Amino acid sequence: MSDNMRYEIGCALADSKRHSFLQPSLVELAKSRGIYLVPVDSTKRLVDQGPFDAILHKLSDKQWNDQLREYRAKYPHVTVIDPLEAIERLHNRISMLRAVQELKITEGNETFEVPRQNVVEKYEELTDLKILEGLKFPVIAKPLVANGTAISHSMSLVFNSKGLKTLKPPLVLQEFVNHGGVIFKVYVVGDFVKCVKRNSLPDVSDEKMKNSVEGFILFSQISNLTAENYDEGREIEQAELPPARFIEDLASGLREVLGLRLFNFDLIRSSEARNRYFVIDINYFPGYNKMPGYEAILTDFFWNLCHEHQKISGREVALGGREIDDKVASELEKDIVNDEEKKVAFTVDIGKESNVDDRVSIVATVIK
């Protein structure tokens, strides 16, 4: 990117997310390449800020959704990372994992699926064992809504029908799969994919279920489960990562089905069949700061965004471009941004090879 180009990304994030993601190491690296990560001011209307070349967001309340729609009405072709409709799918744990069932990967010996699960809408259903039809204990009880709040992360491991009576619907009962205490977190940033190993729930034996007095255990207490014979460090060290090709295929398929560019998914491997994998969760815009080298990875992603080229009357103009020939400008649909500085916003068609919207707004200075 040339020195006179400036690509601004408005970052609409909750305070905790802003502090963890917009660390000085990322902000400065992006800035060195002409990319400015600008926090959106929550005390002002979004439409009164910018204009931004792109908006990066992780807010889910109705007020934000309305503001973003209003902003896109004024700047209809600003790049939004990611679309509201695509993100909404991940807010429900059933629709979230349906995406996995839409995938078709034929190469390799690995198989993938979603654990068996049922939805519980009302408390009365928990007293009727029909709700367990097709499931067997233990099961994981997860809130149906997955919107990033503390409540949506409140989960339990349930061992028997007694434990079911402690739950508060609406929720999802997902059959627990023994997986050796290791979970694979797969981070996706555009075309980039990174798989890392993390500690997970230890395997649950029949004896453990029989000896459970309360019939359940909260996830916050699971670190004490079979602590005397569970060596977290050894399990992680010995665990082999899934084949890279398999991970790439899964990530590529989910990226296409979900229509998202920033997400991660949790993958476990059955303790009984080493080529059998389960996708158990998908998250939008996860904690990338936990991923080694996230600054360079995200900066490259933003760089690629601002170098997606648009074709204007036979000419290619970068998304971050700030000057345009007046003869070309006279032929385009435009709105005046600053008359004194001859700054205008153009709405133009782009080449079919680009993976952004079919039309885009560019703010530029008209030159002779």
From TrEMBL:
Gene3D superfamilies: ATP-grasp fold, B domain (3.30.470.20). ATP binds at residues 93, 142, 174-185, 200. The keyword ATP-binding applies. Monomer. Belongs to the ITPK1 family. Signal peptide: none annotated. This is Inositol-tetrakisphosphate 1-kinase. It catalyses: 1D-myo-inositol 3,4,5,6-tetrakisphosphate + ATP = 1D-myo-inositol 1,3,4,5,6-pentakisphosphate + ADP + H(+). It comes from Taxus chinensis (Chinese yew). Binds 2 magnesium ions per subunit. PANTHER family: INOSITOL-TETRAKISPHOSPHATE 1-KINASE, INOSITOL-TETRAKISPHOSPHATE 1-KINASE 1. One of its GO terms (molecular function) is inositol-1,3,4-trisphosphate 5-kinase activity. Its EC number is 2.7.1.134. 1D-myo-inositol 1,3,4-trisphosphate binds at K17, K58, H153, K185, N283, G287. Its cofactor is Mg(2+). SUPFAM superfamilies: Glutathione synthetase ATP-binding domain-like (SSF56059).
